[in-house]
């Protein structure tokens, strides 16, 4: 999976989880479906999911930064620094 896809997945998942966690959207939907008894357990699912999606986004960001740093110096050859190749 490439970096942009990981970042998109992490941020989209975090946004949807935060929306369900901090607003009564999911509670209302579960109530309409007759699953109101499940709402007491939502925190046990939504908060770890939010942490996992944010962790995925941070992991993708750290990989992007690491790849950018390693890529910035790869165009310098050994001859430019006066070192023999080999």
UniProtKB/TrEMBL annotation:
InterPro entries: Mercury_ion_transport_MerF. The chain crosses the membrane at residues 12-35, 41-61. Keywords: Membrane, Transmembrane, Transmembrane helix. Residues 77-86 have a biased composition (Basic and acidic residues). The keyword Transmembrane helix applies. Residues 66-86 are annotated as: Disordered. It comes from the Bacteria. Pfam families: Transport_MerF (PF11431). This is Mercury resistance system transport protein MerF.
């Amino acid at each position: 999976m490439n970096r942009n896809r990981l970042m998109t997945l992490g941020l989209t998942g975090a946004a949807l989880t935060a929306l369900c966690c901090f607003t009564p959207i999911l509670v209302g939907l579960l109530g309409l479906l007759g699953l109101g008894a499940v709402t007491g357990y939502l925190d046990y699912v939504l908060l770890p999911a939010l942490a996992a999606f944010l962790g995925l986004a941070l992991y993708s960001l750290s990989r992007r930064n690491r790849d950018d740093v390693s890529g910035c110096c790869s165009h310098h050859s050994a001859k430019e620094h006066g070192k023999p190749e080999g």
